[in-house]
TrEMBL record:
This is Galactose mutarotase. The gene is GALM. Pfam families: Aldose_epim. It comes from Balaenoptera musculus. InterPro entries: Aldose_1/G6P_1-epimerase, Gal_mutarotase_sf_dom, GH-type_carb-bd. Pathway: Carbohydrate metabolism; galactose metabolism. Mutarotase that catalyzes the interconversion of beta-D-galactose and alpha-D-galactose during galactose metabolism. Beta-D-galactose is metabolized in the liver into glucose 1-phosphate, the primary metabolic fuel, by the action of four enzymes that constitute the Leloir pathway: GALM, GALK1 (galactokinase), GALT (galactose-1-phosphate uridylyltransferase) and GALE (UDP-galactose-4'-epimerase). Involved in the maintenance of the equilibrium between the beta- and alpha-anomers of galactose, therefore ensuring a sufficient supply of the alpha-anomer for GALK1. It catalyses: alpha-D-galactose = beta-D-galactose.
Length: 194
């Protein structure tokens, strides 16, 4: 037996319309498709044992909030000592995209200073965002050069990028390349000693 159902999935920002979800189901599979870009959000098929599993990495609902950081744990516009900052705000760490002010010109997006060594890293980019990750899942089992042990928060990443879910958020910076367009973004890492 085959069935098709239709339901409201969510509303687009700024009153831009309603997104609907269509579900097609048979004995062999189930597929969920939303009307925004005809996107497949779920595809369940059976394995050898007849168990159904969702094979699509995606989202269960519309997302995409750009929130102010002022007065929150995410306000890193001024220097903080990261370990103390995480403790003060009772955070497990960062794994978040920070939205930068709009410009396709080279601009500073992050500055890191290691007090012990005096090393300074400055990151400049033409990208609209930077993902900040603080090694939240390091647990000491990973061994590095010369047997170095990496416990939780012993490293960090600053990954310049577009905003997550930008393809589904019309109010986010555009992410899709159209025929004839060229991808042109640059990131610079500047190292110094202070």
């Amino acid at each position: 037996m085959v069935s098709v159902t239709r339901a409201v999935f969510g509303d687009l920002p700024l009153g831009a319309g309603t997104v609907e979800k269509f579900q097609l189901q048979s004995d062999q599979l189930r597929v969920d498709i939303i009307s925004w870009g005809c996107t497949i959000t779920a595809l369940e098929v059976k394995d050898r044992q007849g168990r159904a599993s969702d094979l699509v990495l995606g989202f269960a609902e519309l997302e995409g909030e750009v929130a102010p950081v002022q007065g929150t744990a995410f306000d890193l516009r001024k220097a903080v000592e990261l370990g103390k900052h995480l403790q003060e705000f009772h955070m497990n760490g960062f794994d978040h995209n920070f939205c930068l002010k709009g410009s396709k010109e080279k601009r500073l997006c992050a500055r890191v200073h290691h007090a012990g060594s005096g090393r300074v890293l400055e990151v400049y980019t033409t990208q609209p965002g930077v993902q900040f990750y603080t090694g939240n899942f390091l647990d000491g089992t990973l061994k590095g050069k010369s047997g170095a042990v990496y416990p939780k928060h012993s490293g960090f990443c600053l990954e310049t990028q577009n905003w997550p879910d930008a393809v589904n958020q019309p109010h986010f910076p555009p992410v899709l390349l159209k025929p004839g367009e060229e991808y042109d973004h640059t990131t610079w890492f500047k190292f110094s000693v202070a």
